[in-house]
Write a structure and sequence with these properties.
disordered N terminus
Length: about 325
């Protein structure tokens, strides 16, 4: 019977291909977390962010570019000021940065970066927001939650906004939306699917523990109106990141479940139609990672992998592999 078992095992391996893993790519020019990122004309643009050096947090202003064809990083320019932890997304062939902080206060300006690294102001917000949750949905950037003071999580809000871009000349317009229900929150994530924006997790301010992770799921339509949902994340978590795989399927990964567990590489697939979660392929590291997409590829890069520490690692994997990981 042993040869038969061996043959059966071989046939099973032939008909069930092994699941591919994350591919390691050239590291970022520096360890970084909290930056804006997105693909424009096939090139990965990242801007701003933070790193820790000699036990001090530094806020960054460099605009970097990664070319997948050559595997090379280059520096394209500088932002007008350091920037991190704001709303961001690619619209009209520009990486849009809204709000965020320079490490001193919340920022109100809206910046647009093109494929060459040219950065230009294109509008203003009524108030600065840091640690907000954002996603591009159709022709607009929807963002919600966030704090007005980077040093005081007691300033978390449940405010929501809709940003649109008018090209030639480039101009951003921001509309205030109805506040989302519940306490102010931030440091979660958002992704768009089926004409809706899903906002996952994050944290509330707590007077005793300072920060309290949440498992909340908010859902809004393209006009920013809140939609009813009873779904919750599998676990309360902040610093989780989301990316849309297909219209109806969102990949969520990483984050910080709490001091006992530390940073995580766990991941889920969220089915937007049934609003259910299934375990998926883990990240290549435990981190508050950044996720972005270029066609068939999902990229994971940078992020906070330890307290007072950032990583420069970068990986990629095909969309189909992440989708398959939730079916096996």
């Amino acid at each position: 019977m042993k040869p038969l078992l061996t043959l059966c095992a071989a046939l099973f391996c032939m008909t069930t291909p092994a699941l591919a893993d994350w591919q390691s790519l050239p590291s970022l020019p520096e360890a970084n977390g909290g930056f804006a990122c997105g693909f424009i004309a096939g090139k990965l643009i990242i801007a701003g962010g933070t790193l820790w050096r000699n036990d001090q947090k530094h806020w960054l202003s460099a605009i970097r570019c990664y070319d997948p064809q050559t595997g090379q990083w280059s520096t394209l320019g500088q932002l007008p000021h350091p920037w991190a932890y704001g709303a961001c997304g690619v619209m009209h062939d520009h990486l849009i940065l809204a709000g965020g902080s320079d490490g001193k206060s919340g920022l109100q300006d809206i910046l647009a970066i093109d494929a060459s690294g040219r950065c230009q102001p294109c509008g203003n917000m009524t108030k600065g927001l840091i640690y907000t949750n954002s996603a591009v949905c159709g022709e607009q950037l929807i963002f919600a939650g966030g704090a007005t003071d980077p040093a005081d999580l007691g300033t978390f809000t449940s405010d929501a906004f809709r940003l649109t871009i008018t090209p030639a000349p480039l101009h951003a317009t921001v509309w205030a939306l109805p506040c989302l229900s519940g306490k102010g929150f931030g440091t979660g994530t958002a992704a768009a699917s089926g004409g809706k924006v899903f906002i996952f997790g994050g944290a509330h301010h707590d007077p005793v523990t300072v920060v309290q992770n949440i498992d909340t799921l908010h859902m809004v339509d393209q006009q920013g109106s809140a939609l009813p949902t009873n779904a919750h994340l599998p676990t309360p978590i902040r610093g989780i990141t989301a990316i849309t795989l297909t219209d109806g399927l969102i990949y969520l990964a990483g984050g910080y479940p709490g001091d006992d567990a530390g940073f995580t590489d766990e991941a889920w697939l969220f089915d937007a139609s049934t609003q259910t979660f299934a375990k998926a392929m883990a990240l290549p590291l435990k981190s508050m990672v950044h996720l972005t997409r270029d066609g068939e590829w999902i990229y994971a890069l940078g992020g906070e992998d330890k307290k007072k520490h950032r990583t420069a690692g970068m990986w990629r994997i095909r969309v189909e592999e992440l989708m398959s990981s939730g079916r096996r």
